[in-house]
Amino acid sequence: MLxxxxxxxxxxxxxxxxxxxxxxxxxxxRWLSAAGRSxxxxxxxxxxxxxxxxxxxxxxxxxxxxTSAMTWGRxxxxxxxxxxxxxxxxxxxxxxxxxxxDVWQEWVQTDPRWEQRLPWDDLMRAHERMDAELAVxxxxxxxxxxxxxxxxxxxxxxxxxxxRAAPGCQGSGRCFQGCPHGGKSSVDVTxxxxxxxxxxxxxxxxxxxxxxxxxxxAVAVHGRFSAGGKLVARAKVAIILAASAxxxxxxxxxxxxxNVGQGFQVHPAVAVAGLFPRPMxxxxxxxxxxxSFAFRDQGLKLESVRLPTSSLAQRxxxxxxxxxxxMQQLPFIGSWNVLLRAEARGRVRRGxxxxxxxxxxTDEDRRKLLKGIAILSEAMLxxxxxxxxxxxxGAPETITRPKQAQDIAAMAPQAGAVPLWSAHLFCxxxxxxxxxxxxxxxxxxxxxSLFPSNLGVAPAATIMAVATLISDRWGAA
Length: 477
Ligand SMILES: Cc1cc2nc3c(=O)[nH]c(=O)nc-3n(C[C@H](O)[C@H](O)[C@H](O)COP(=O)(O)OP(=O)(O)OC[C@H]3O[C@@H](n4cnc5c(N)ncnc54)[C@H](O)[C@@H]3O)c2cc1C
Ligand code: SF4
Prior knowledge:
The chain is an alpha+beta fold. The protein contains 13 helices and 21 strands.
Protein backbone atom coordinates (compact mmCIF):
# COMPACT_ATOMS: atom_id res chain seq x y z
CA MET A 1 0.00 0.00 0.00
CA LEU A 2 1.11 3.55 -0.61
CA UNK A 3 2.75 5.07 2.45
CA UNK A 4 0.73 8.21 3.13
CA UNK A 5 -1.51 9.17 6.00
CA UNK A 6 -3.65 11.08 3.53
CA UNK A 7 -3.30 14.42 5.26
CA UNK A 8 -1.11 15.94 2.52
CA UNK A 9 -1.74 16.39 -1.21
CA UNK A 10 -0.29 13.63 -3.38
CA UNK A 11 0.52 13.58 -7.10
CA UNK A 12 0.98 10.19 -8.72
CA UNK A 13 1.12 8.64 -12.15
CA UNK A 14 1.03 5.12 -13.57
CA UNK A 15 0.27 3.32 -16.81
CA UNK A 16 -3.11 2.35 -15.41
CA UNK A 17 -5.06 4.12 -12.68
CA UNK A 18 -7.80 1.84 -11.35
CA UNK A 19 -10.73 3.22 -9.34
CA UNK A 20 -12.03 0.57 -6.91
CA UNK A 21 -10.29 -2.46 -5.42
CA UNK A 22 -13.11 -5.03 -5.55
CA UNK A 23 -13.72 -7.96 -7.89
CA UNK A 24 -13.19 -5.97 -11.09
CA UNK A 25 -10.44 -3.59 -9.95
CA UNK A 26 -8.32 -6.25 -8.24
CA UNK A 27 -8.57 -8.55 -11.27
CA UNK A 28 -7.33 -5.76 -13.53
CA UNK A 29 -4.53 -4.93 -11.08
CA ARG A 30 -3.50 -8.59 -10.94
CA TRP A 31 -3.22 -9.14 -14.70
CA LEU A 32 -1.95 -5.69 -15.72
CA SER A 33 0.86 -5.77 -13.17
CA ALA A 34 1.72 -9.33 -14.24
CA ALA A 35 2.00 -7.95 -17.80
CA GLY A 36 4.67 -5.53 -16.55
CA ARG A 37 2.46 -2.42 -16.45
CA SER A 38 2.61 0.09 -13.63
CA UNK A 39 -0.66 0.12 -11.73
CA UNK A 40 -2.24 2.36 -9.11
CA UNK A 41 -5.42 1.19 -7.37
CA UNK A 42 -7.45 3.84 -5.54
CA UNK A 43 -9.96 2.70 -2.93
CA UNK A 44 -12.43 4.75 -0.95
CA UNK A 45 -12.51 2.35 2.01
CA UNK A 46 -9.79 1.24 4.39
CA UNK A 47 -7.86 -2.01 4.71
CA UNK A 48 -10.25 -4.90 5.37
CA UNK A 49 -10.16 -6.73 8.66
CA UNK A 50 -12.78 -9.31 9.58
CA UNK A 51 -15.20 -8.05 12.21
CA UNK A 52 -14.43 -9.48 15.63
CA UNK A 53 -17.91 -8.97 16.97
CA UNK A 54 -21.23 -9.28 15.22
CA UNK A 55 -23.11 -7.21 12.66
CA UNK A 56 -22.67 -3.61 13.74
CA UNK A 57 -18.88 -3.56 13.58
CA UNK A 58 -18.87 -5.25 10.17
CA UNK A 59 -21.53 -3.00 8.73
CA UNK A 60 -19.80 0.20 9.79
CA UNK A 61 -16.27 -0.84 8.82
CA UNK A 62 -16.71 -3.00 5.74
CA UNK A 63 -19.92 -1.86 4.06
CA UNK A 64 -20.97 1.20 2.08
CA UNK A 65 -23.39 3.37 4.06
CA UNK A 66 -23.30 0.86 6.92
CA THR A 67 -25.63 -1.49 4.93
CA SER A 68 -28.37 1.13 5.02
CA ALA A 69 -28.45 2.14 1.33
CA MET A 70 -31.95 1.85 -0.13
CA THR A 71 -33.43 2.16 -3.58
CA TRP A 72 -36.10 4.75 -4.22
CA GLY A 73 -39.40 3.25 -5.30
CA ARG A 74 -42.54 1.56 -4.05
CA UNK A 75 -40.63 -1.62 -3.11
CA UNK A 76 -37.79 0.05 -1.22
CA UNK A 77 -34.91 -2.42 -1.40
CA UNK A 78 -31.70 -2.61 0.62
CA UNK A 79 -28.56 -2.38 -1.51
CA UNK A 80 -25.56 -4.14 0.02
CA UNK A 81 -22.03 -3.26 -1.09
CA UNK A 82 -18.58 -3.53 0.38
CA UNK A 83 -16.51 -0.41 0.91
CA UNK A 84 -13.01 -1.47 1.89
CA UNK A 85 -9.82 -2.74 0.25
CA UNK A 86 -11.15 -5.80 -1.59
CA UNK A 87 -14.60 -4.28 -2.12
CA UNK A 88 -17.65 -6.49 -1.87
CA UNK A 89 -15.56 -9.68 -2.15
CA UNK A 90 -14.56 -9.15 1.50
CA UNK A 91 -18.17 -9.55 2.66
CA UNK A 92 -19.35 -11.90 -0.10
CA UNK A 93 -20.40 -15.50 0.30
CA UNK A 94 -17.57 -16.55 -2.05
CA UNK A 95 -20.00 -18.19 -4.49
CA UNK A 96 -18.45 -18.51 -7.96
CA UNK A 97 -20.77 -19.30 -10.85
CA UNK A 98 -19.85 -19.19 -14.51
CA UNK A 99 -21.65 -16.95 -16.94
CA UNK A 100 -24.63 -18.87 -18.38
CA UNK A 101 -24.34 -19.48 -22.12
CA ASP A 102 -27.96 -18.49 -22.78
CA VAL A 103 -27.40 -15.09 -21.16
CA TRP A 104 -24.33 -14.56 -23.37
CA GLN A 105 -26.45 -15.50 -26.38
CA GLU A 106 -29.08 -12.96 -25.34
CA TRP A 107 -26.39 -10.26 -25.23
CA VAL A 108 -25.16 -11.23 -28.69
CA GLN A 109 -28.69 -11.32 -30.10
CA THR A 110 -29.38 -7.85 -28.71
CA ASP A 111 -26.11 -6.49 -30.10
CA PRO A 112 -23.87 -8.74 -32.26
CA ARG A 113 -20.78 -6.72 -31.25
CA TRP A 114 -20.75 -8.59 -27.93
CA GLU A 115 -19.55 -11.67 -29.79
CA GLN A 116 -16.27 -9.89 -30.65
CA ARG A 117 -16.05 -8.03 -27.40
CA LEU A 118 -16.43 -11.13 -25.26
CA PRO A 119 -15.84 -14.24 -27.41
CA TRP A 120 -17.41 -17.19 -25.59
CA ASP A 121 -14.30 -19.41 -25.69
CA ASP A 122 -12.09 -16.59 -24.36
CA LEU A 123 -14.60 -15.95 -21.60
CA MET A 124 -14.57 -19.61 -20.56
CA ARG A 125 -10.75 -19.64 -20.54
CA ALA A 126 -10.80 -16.51 -18.37
CA HIS A 127 -13.24 -18.24 -15.99
CA GLU A 128 -10.86 -21.21 -15.74
CA ARG A 129 -7.92 -18.91 -15.07
CA MET A 130 -9.77 -17.17 -12.25
CA ASP A 131 -11.03 -20.46 -10.79
CA ALA A 132 -7.43 -21.68 -10.57
CA GLU A 133 -6.23 -18.35 -9.19
CA LEU A 134 -8.83 -18.35 -6.41
CA ALA A 135 -8.94 -22.12 -5.77
CA VAL A 136 -12.64 -22.50 -6.55
CA UNK A 137 -14.14 -25.80 -5.42
CA UNK A 138 -17.46 -27.47 -4.70
CA UNK A 139 -18.59 -27.16 -1.06
CA UNK A 140 -17.44 -30.39 0.59
CA UNK A 141 -19.96 -32.64 2.35
CA UNK A 142 -18.67 -31.75 5.82
CA UNK A 143 -19.59 -28.08 5.25
CA UNK A 144 -23.18 -28.60 4.07
CA UNK A 145 -24.50 -28.28 7.63
CA UNK A 146 -28.16 -28.65 8.50
CA UNK A 147 -29.15 -25.78 6.20
CA UNK A 148 -27.47 -27.16 3.08
CA UNK A 149 -28.47 -30.76 3.65
CA UNK A 150 -31.98 -29.57 4.54
CA UNK A 151 -32.37 -27.62 1.29
CA UNK A 152 -31.34 -30.72 -0.64
CA UNK A 153 -33.96 -32.80 1.20
CA UNK A 154 -36.65 -30.13 1.07
CA UNK A 155 -36.25 -29.72 -2.70
CA UNK A 156 -36.28 -33.50 -3.08
CA UNK A 157 -32.77 -33.70 -4.42
CA UNK A 158 -33.05 -30.74 -6.84
CA UNK A 159 -30.06 -28.90 -5.40
CA UNK A 160 -26.29 -29.16 -5.73
CA UNK A 161 -23.32 -28.14 -3.58
CA UNK A 162 -22.26 -24.56 -4.28
CA UNK A 163 -18.96 -23.77 -6.05
CA ARG A 164 -17.03 -21.35 -3.86
CA ALA A 165 -13.69 -19.59 -3.71
CA ALA A 166 -13.05 -20.60 -0.12
CA PRO A 167 -10.33 -23.25 0.06
CA GLY A 168 -9.74 -22.71 3.79
CA CYS A 169 -13.40 -22.50 4.79
CA GLN A 170 -14.12 -23.79 8.29
CA GLY A 171 -17.88 -23.38 8.01
CA SER A 172 -18.32 -20.53 10.48
CA GLY A 173 -21.07 -19.00 8.32
CA ARG A 174 -19.75 -15.49 8.87
CA CYS A 175 -18.76 -14.53 5.33
CA PHE A 176 -20.93 -11.39 5.39
CA GLN A 177 -18.74 -9.96 8.15
CA GLY A 178 -15.41 -10.80 6.54
CA CYS A 179 -13.87 -14.22 7.10
CA PRO A 180 -12.29 -14.41 10.58
CA HIS A 181 -10.19 -17.41 9.46
CA GLY A 182 -8.85 -16.06 6.16
CA GLY A 183 -10.68 -19.02 4.65
CA LYS A 184 -12.05 -17.42 1.52
CA SER A 185 -10.20 -16.08 -1.50
CA SER A 186 -11.50 -12.52 -1.25
CA VAL A 187 -9.31 -10.31 -3.41
CA ASP A 188 -7.73 -8.45 -0.47
CA VAL A 189 -5.86 -11.65 0.45
CA THR A 190 -5.31 -13.03 -3.09
CA UNK A 191 -5.27 -10.83 -6.19
CA UNK A 192 -4.25 -7.55 -4.58
CA UNK A 193 -1.19 -8.87 -2.66
CA UNK A 194 -0.13 -10.73 -5.82
CA UNK A 195 -0.47 -7.52 -7.83
CA UNK A 196 1.52 -5.64 -5.17
CA UNK A 197 4.28 -8.22 -5.46
CA UNK A 198 4.46 -7.29 -9.15
CA UNK A 199 4.75 -3.61 -8.24
CA UNK A 200 1.13 -2.42 -8.13
CA UNK A 201 0.36 0.22 -5.50
CA UNK A 202 -2.91 0.37 -3.56
CA UNK A 203 -4.10 3.68 -2.09
CA UNK A 204 -6.77 3.19 0.59
CA UNK A 205 -9.04 5.77 2.20
CA UNK A 206 -9.21 7.90 -0.94
CA UNK A 207 -12.46 8.66 -2.73
CA UNK A 208 -12.13 9.53 -6.38
CA UNK A 209 -14.34 12.56 -6.87
CA UNK A 210 -14.05 13.02 -10.60
CA UNK A 211 -12.26 12.00 -13.75
CA UNK A 212 -10.56 14.80 -15.65
CA UNK A 213 -11.49 14.57 -19.32
CA UNK A 214 -9.74 16.77 -21.89
CA UNK A 215 -10.80 16.84 -25.55
CA UNK A 216 -12.76 13.60 -25.16
CA UNK A 217 -9.88 11.72 -23.52
CA ALA A 218 -9.54 10.80 -19.81
CA VAL A 219 -6.23 12.00 -18.40
CA ALA A 220 -6.35 11.92 -14.59
CA VAL A 221 -8.50 11.26 -11.56
CA HIS A 222 -8.97 13.69 -8.71
CA GLY A 223 -9.61 12.26 -5.27
CA ARG A 224 -9.75 13.21 -1.63
CA PHE A 225 -8.34 11.24 1.30
CA SER A 226 -10.54 10.76 4.33
CA ALA A 227 -7.79 12.60 6.26
CA GLY A 228 -8.30 15.66 4.05
CA GLY A 229 -5.42 15.58 1.52
CA LYS A 230 -6.03 15.64 -2.21
CA LEU A 231 -4.86 13.11 -4.79
CA VAL A 232 -4.24 13.71 -8.46
CA ALA A 233 -3.33 10.53 -10.35
CA ARG A 234 -2.43 10.70 -14.03
CA ALA A 235 -2.77 7.68 -16.29
CA LYS A 236 -0.27 7.12 -19.11
CA VAL A 237 -2.32 4.42 -20.81
CA ALA A 238 -5.84 4.39 -19.33
CA ILE A 239 -8.07 4.99 -16.34
CA ILE A 240 -10.06 1.90 -15.39
CA LEU A 241 -13.38 2.36 -13.64
CA ALA A 242 -14.13 -0.53 -11.29
CA ALA A 243 -16.18 1.19 -8.60
CA SER A 244 -19.18 -1.21 -8.93
CA ALA A 245 -22.17 -0.66 -11.22
CA UNK A 246 -23.78 2.18 -9.25
CA UNK A 247 -20.39 3.51 -8.10
CA UNK A 248 -19.04 3.85 -11.62
CA UNK A 249 -22.22 5.56 -12.80
CA UNK A 250 -22.04 7.96 -9.85
CA UNK A 251 -18.41 8.80 -10.65
CA UNK A 252 -19.28 9.43 -14.30
CA UNK A 253 -22.12 11.70 -13.18
CA UNK A 254 -19.67 13.69 -11.05
CA UNK A 255 -17.29 13.87 -14.01
CA UNK A 256 -19.92 15.52 -16.18
CA UNK A 257 -20.67 12.47 -18.36
CA UNK A 258 -24.28 12.36 -19.46
CA ASN A 259 -26.51 9.48 -20.55
CA VAL A 260 -25.33 6.95 -17.99
CA GLY A 261 -27.30 5.12 -15.30
CA GLN A 262 -30.20 3.95 -17.46
CA GLY A 263 -31.27 0.32 -17.53
CA PHE A 264 -29.87 -0.52 -14.08
CA GLN A 265 -30.67 -4.11 -13.03
CA VAL A 266 -30.37 -6.26 -9.91
CA HIS A 267 -31.17 -9.70 -8.58
CA PRO A 268 -33.73 -8.88 -5.86
CA ALA A 269 -33.53 -11.36 -3.00
CA VAL A 270 -35.77 -12.46 -0.13
CA ALA A 271 -35.02 -14.60 2.92
CA VAL A 272 -37.47 -17.22 4.19
CA ALA A 273 -36.97 -18.41 7.77
CA GLY A 274 -38.32 -21.36 9.71
CA LEU A 275 -38.23 -23.05 13.10
CA PHE A 276 -36.98 -26.62 13.03
CA PRO A 277 -37.14 -29.44 15.59
CA ARG A 278 -33.35 -29.86 15.45
CA PRO A 279 -30.47 -27.40 15.98
CA MET A 280 -29.70 -25.68 12.69
CA UNK A 281 -26.36 -24.21 13.67
CA UNK A 282 -24.74 -26.99 15.68
CA UNK A 283 -22.01 -28.02 13.24
CA UNK A 284 -19.93 -26.22 10.63
CA UNK A 285 -21.74 -24.89 7.57
CA UNK A 286 -20.48 -22.78 4.69
CA UNK A 287 -22.35 -19.49 4.27
CA UNK A 288 -23.86 -20.81 1.03
CA UNK A 289 -23.50 -24.58 0.99
CA UNK A 290 -26.24 -25.68 -1.40
CA UNK A 291 -28.06 -24.07 -4.31
CA SER A 292 -30.78 -24.93 -6.77
CA PHE A 293 -31.33 -23.80 -10.35
CA ALA A 294 -34.30 -26.15 -10.78
CA PHE A 295 -36.53 -23.11 -11.40
CA ARG A 296 -34.07 -21.15 -13.50
CA ASP A 297 -36.52 -21.03 -16.42
CA GLN A 298 -38.56 -18.72 -14.14
CA GLY A 299 -35.51 -16.68 -13.21
CA LEU A 300 -35.26 -18.17 -9.71
CA LYS A 301 -32.20 -19.24 -7.81
CA LEU A 302 -32.66 -20.87 -4.39
CA GLU A 303 -29.84 -21.18 -1.88
CA SER A 304 -29.13 -22.21 1.67
CA VAL A 305 -27.58 -19.58 3.87
CA ARG A 306 -25.93 -19.80 7.28
CA LEU A 307 -26.27 -16.42 8.93
CA PRO A 308 -24.49 -14.96 11.94
CA THR A 309 -26.85 -14.90 14.92
CA SER A 310 -27.44 -11.14 14.81
CA SER A 311 -28.57 -11.30 11.18
CA LEU A 312 -30.73 -14.36 11.78
CA ALA A 313 -32.47 -12.59 14.66
CA GLN A 314 -33.68 -9.91 12.25
CA ARG A 315 -35.76 -12.51 10.41
CA UNK A 316 -37.71 -13.59 13.50
CA UNK A 317 -41.27 -12.20 13.51
CA UNK A 318 -43.48 -11.41 16.48
CA UNK A 319 -43.59 -9.08 19.47
CA UNK A 320 -43.51 -9.34 23.26
CA UNK A 321 -43.46 -12.77 24.88
CA UNK A 322 -43.82 -14.59 21.56
CA UNK A 323 -40.74 -12.84 20.21
CA UNK A 324 -38.91 -13.61 23.45
CA UNK A 325 -39.72 -17.29 23.14
CA UNK A 326 -38.66 -17.41 19.51
CA MET A 327 -35.40 -15.66 20.30
CA GLN A 328 -34.60 -18.36 22.83
CA GLN A 329 -34.97 -20.85 19.99
CA LEU A 330 -32.52 -19.07 17.67
CA PRO A 331 -30.25 -22.14 17.30
CA PHE A 332 -33.26 -24.01 15.88
CA ILE A 333 -34.00 -21.38 13.24
CA GLY A 334 -32.87 -21.75 9.66
CA SER A 335 -33.01 -19.39 6.71
CA TRP A 336 -32.87 -19.87 2.95
CA ASN A 337 -32.80 -17.30 0.14
CA VAL A 338 -34.57 -16.83 -3.13
CA LEU A 339 -32.92 -14.61 -5.75
CA LEU A 340 -34.55 -13.48 -8.98
CA ARG A 341 -33.22 -12.60 -12.39
CA ALA A 342 -35.67 -9.69 -12.46
CA GLU A 343 -36.76 -8.15 -15.73
CA ALA A 344 -37.25 -4.69 -14.19
CA ARG A 345 -34.89 -1.91 -15.14
CA GLY A 346 -34.26 1.08 -12.92
CA ARG A 347 -31.95 4.03 -13.08
CA VAL A 348 -29.00 5.40 -11.17
CA ARG A 349 -29.89 9.08 -11.04
CA ARG A 350 -27.97 12.16 -10.21
CA GLY A 351 -29.37 14.24 -7.34
CA UNK A 352 -28.34 17.32 -5.41
CA UNK A 353 -26.81 15.23 -2.63
CA UNK A 354 -25.26 12.60 -4.92
CA UNK A 355 -26.48 9.67 -6.96
CA UNK A 356 -29.45 7.54 -5.94
CA UNK A 357 -31.13 4.46 -7.36
CA UNK A 358 -34.66 4.43 -8.68
CA UNK A 359 -35.93 0.87 -8.98
CA UNK A 360 -39.17 -1.12 -8.79
CA UNK A 361 -39.71 -4.77 -9.71
CA THR A 362 -42.41 -5.39 -12.30
CA ASP A 363 -45.59 -7.26 -11.30
CA GLU A 364 -44.17 -10.28 -13.10
CA ASP A 365 -41.03 -10.03 -10.94
CA ARG A 366 -43.16 -9.77 -7.79
CA ARG A 367 -45.18 -12.81 -8.90
CA LYS A 368 -41.99 -14.83 -9.42
CA LEU A 369 -40.62 -13.80 -6.03
CA LEU A 370 -43.85 -14.97 -4.37
CA LYS A 371 -43.47 -18.26 -6.22
CA GLY A 372 -39.91 -18.62 -4.96
CA ILE A 373 -41.01 -17.88 -1.39
CA ALA A 374 -43.79 -20.47 -1.74
CA ILE A 375 -41.33 -23.10 -3.01
CA LEU A 376 -38.89 -22.48 -0.17
CA SER A 377 -41.67 -22.44 2.44
CA GLU A 378 -42.99 -25.76 1.20
CA ALA A 379 -39.45 -27.18 1.08
CA MET A 380 -38.90 -26.16 4.72
CA LEU A 381 -42.13 -27.89 5.76
CA UNK A 382 -41.06 -30.97 3.82
CA UNK A 383 -37.82 -30.87 5.77
CA UNK A 384 -39.87 -31.02 8.97
CA UNK A 385 -39.92 -27.32 9.90
CA UNK A 386 -42.38 -26.82 12.77
CA UNK A 387 -43.34 -23.45 11.40
CA UNK A 388 -42.22 -21.23 8.51
CA UNK A 389 -42.14 -17.43 8.43
CA UNK A 390 -42.51 -16.38 4.79
CA UNK A 391 -42.34 -12.66 5.60
CA UNK A 392 -45.01 -11.72 3.05
CA UNK A 393 -47.41 -8.90 3.86
CA GLY A 394 -50.96 -10.25 3.49
CA ALA A 395 -49.96 -13.89 4.06
CA PRO A 396 -50.13 -15.58 7.49
CA GLU A 397 -47.12 -14.67 9.62
CA THR A 398 -46.63 -18.34 10.45
CA ILE A 399 -47.45 -21.22 8.18
CA THR A 400 -47.48 -24.89 9.10
CA ARG A 401 -49.16 -26.61 6.14
CA PRO A 402 -48.04 -27.01 2.50
CA LYS A 403 -51.38 -25.61 1.26
CA GLN A 404 -50.62 -22.31 3.04
CA ALA A 405 -47.27 -22.20 1.26
CA GLN A 406 -48.89 -22.87 -2.12
CA ASP A 407 -51.41 -20.08 -1.47
CA ILE A 408 -48.53 -17.58 -1.37
CA ALA A 409 -47.71 -18.36 -5.00
CA ALA A 410 -51.30 -17.51 -5.94
CA MET A 411 -51.33 -14.11 -4.17
CA ALA A 412 -51.78 -10.99 -6.27
CA PRO A 413 -48.45 -9.17 -6.67
CA GLN A 414 -48.28 -6.07 -4.54
CA ALA A 415 -45.62 -3.38 -4.19
CA GLY A 416 -43.77 -3.53 -0.90
CA ALA A 417 -45.23 -6.91 0.12
CA VAL A 418 -41.83 -8.47 0.83
CA PRO A 419 -38.64 -7.00 2.29
CA LEU A 420 -36.15 -7.03 -0.58
CA TRP A 421 -32.41 -6.70 -0.66
CA SER A 422 -29.83 -7.02 -3.37
CA ALA A 423 -26.08 -7.36 -3.56
CA HIS A 424 -25.92 -8.17 -7.30
CA LEU A 425 -25.89 -4.97 -9.34
CA PHE A 426 -25.62 -4.49 -13.09
CA CYS A 427 -25.79 -2.17 -16.13
CA UNK A 428 -25.84 1.56 -16.69
CA UNK A 429 -22.78 2.43 -18.78
CA UNK A 430 -22.66 2.04 -22.57
CA UNK A 431 -19.20 1.00 -23.78
CA UNK A 432 -17.51 0.75 -27.16
CA UNK A 433 -15.51 -2.20 -28.50
CA UNK A 434 -12.51 -1.20 -26.35
CA UNK A 435 -14.77 -1.05 -23.26
CA UNK A 436 -14.42 2.74 -23.15
CA UNK A 437 -17.31 4.53 -21.44
CA UNK A 438 -19.55 6.49 -23.79
CA UNK A 439 -16.75 6.58 -26.37
CA UNK A 440 -14.47 8.63 -24.09
CA UNK A 441 -10.86 7.84 -24.96
CA UNK A 442 -8.81 5.93 -22.36
CA UNK A 443 -11.74 5.74 -19.93
CA UNK A 444 -12.18 1.99 -19.62
CA UNK A 445 -15.01 0.34 -17.67
CA UNK A 446 -14.27 -3.06 -16.12
CA UNK A 447 -17.17 -3.71 -13.72
CA UNK A 448 -20.73 -4.94 -14.22
CA SER A 449 -21.97 -1.46 -15.17
CA LEU A 450 -20.90 -2.46 -18.69
CA PHE A 451 -23.09 -5.60 -18.72
CA PRO A 452 -26.15 -5.31 -20.96
CA SER A 453 -28.24 -7.27 -18.43
CA ASN A 454 -28.24 -9.17 -15.17
CA LEU A 455 -27.10 -12.81 -15.18
CA GLY A 456 -29.36 -14.95 -13.00
CA VAL A 457 -26.26 -16.35 -11.27
CA ALA A 458 -23.86 -14.93 -8.69
CA PRO A 459 -21.94 -12.22 -10.59
CA ALA A 460 -18.41 -12.10 -9.13
CA ALA A 461 -16.96 -14.86 -11.34
CA THR A 462 -18.29 -13.28 -14.54
CA ILE A 463 -17.14 -9.83 -13.46
CA MET A 464 -13.65 -11.26 -12.91
CA ALA A 465 -13.66 -13.16 -16.22
CA VAL A 466 -14.70 -10.05 -18.14
CA ALA A 467 -12.12 -7.93 -16.28
CA THR A 468 -9.50 -10.54 -17.20
CA LEU A 469 -10.27 -10.18 -20.92
CA ILE A 470 -10.27 -6.39 -20.67
CA SER A 471 -6.89 -6.45 -18.87
CA ASP A 472 -5.41 -8.82 -21.44
CA ARG A 473 -6.40 -6.48 -24.27
CA TRP A 474 -5.34 -3.23 -22.62
CA GLY A 475 -2.21 -4.79 -21.13
CA ALA A 476 -1.08 -5.70 -24.61
CA ALA A 477 -2.04 -2.30 -26.06
C1 LIG B 1 -22.93 -9.20 1.31
C2 LIG B 1 -22.59 -9.57 -0.11
C3 LIG B 1 -22.49 -10.92 -0.47
C4 LIG B 1 -22.17 -11.26 -1.79
N1 LIG B 1 -21.97 -12.58 -2.10
C5 LIG B 1 -21.60 -12.91 -3.36
C6 LIG B 1 -21.25 -14.24 -3.71
O1 LIG B 1 -21.22 -15.13 -2.86
N2 LIG B 1 -20.92 -14.50 -5.00
C7 LIG B 1 -20.93 -13.52 -5.97
O2 LIG B 1 -20.66 -13.82 -7.12
N3 LIG B 1 -21.20 -12.26 -5.66
C8 LIG B 1 -21.52 -11.93 -4.39
N4 LIG B 1 -21.74 -10.63 -4.07
C9 LIG B 1 -21.65 -9.63 -5.14
C10 LIG B 1 -20.21 -9.41 -5.55
O3 LIG B 1 -19.39 -9.29 -4.41
C11 LIG B 1 -20.14 -8.17 -6.42
O4 LIG B 1 -20.98 -8.37 -7.55
C12 LIG B 1 -18.75 -7.86 -6.91
O5 LIG B 1 -17.82 -7.79 -5.86
C13 LIG B 1 -18.78 -6.55 -7.67
O6 LIG B 1 -17.48 -6.25 -8.09
P1 LIG B 1 -17.05 -4.75 -8.37
O7 LIG B 1 -15.59 -4.75 -8.52
O8 LIG B 1 -17.89 -4.19 -9.46
O9 LIG B 1 -17.49 -3.93 -7.07
P2 LIG B 1 -17.02 -4.10 -5.57
O10 LIG B 1 -16.46 -5.45 -5.33
O11 LIG B 1 -18.18 -3.66 -4.74
O12 LIG B 1 -15.81 -3.07 -5.44
C14 LIG B 1 -15.97 -1.71 -5.74
C15 LIG B 1 -15.00 -0.93 -4.86
O13 LIG B 1 -14.90 0.38 -5.39
C16 LIG B 1 -14.81 1.29 -4.32
N5 LIG B 1 -15.26 2.60 -4.80
C17 LIG B 1 -16.50 2.94 -5.22
N6 LIG B 1 -16.51 4.25 -5.59
C18 LIG B 1 -15.25 4.71 -5.41
C19 LIG B 1 -14.64 5.98 -5.62
N7 LIG B 1 -15.32 7.02 -6.09
N8 LIG B 1 -13.33 6.11 -5.31
C20 LIG B 1 -12.60 5.07 -4.83
N9 LIG B 1 -13.15 3.84 -4.61
C21 LIG B 1 -14.45 3.66 -4.90
C22 LIG B 1 -15.74 0.70 -3.28
O14 LIG B 1 -15.45 1.21 -1.99
C23 LIG B 1 -15.47 -0.78 -3.42
O15 LIG B 1 -14.47 -1.22 -2.54
C24 LIG B 1 -22.00 -10.24 -2.76
C25 LIG B 1 -22.07 -8.91 -2.39
C26 LIG B 1 -22.34 -8.56 -1.07
C27 LIG B 1 -22.39 -7.12 -0.69
S1 SF4 C 1 -18.14 -19.70 6.06
FE1 SF4 C 1 -16.82 -18.88 7.71
S2 SF4 C 1 -14.84 -19.94 7.47
FE2 SF4 C 1 -16.02 -20.25 5.58
S3 SF4 C 1 -15.29 -18.63 4.23
FE3 SF4 C 1 -17.16 -17.88 5.23
S4 SF4 C 1 -16.46 -16.77 7.05
FE4 SF4 C 1 -14.72 -18.03 6.32
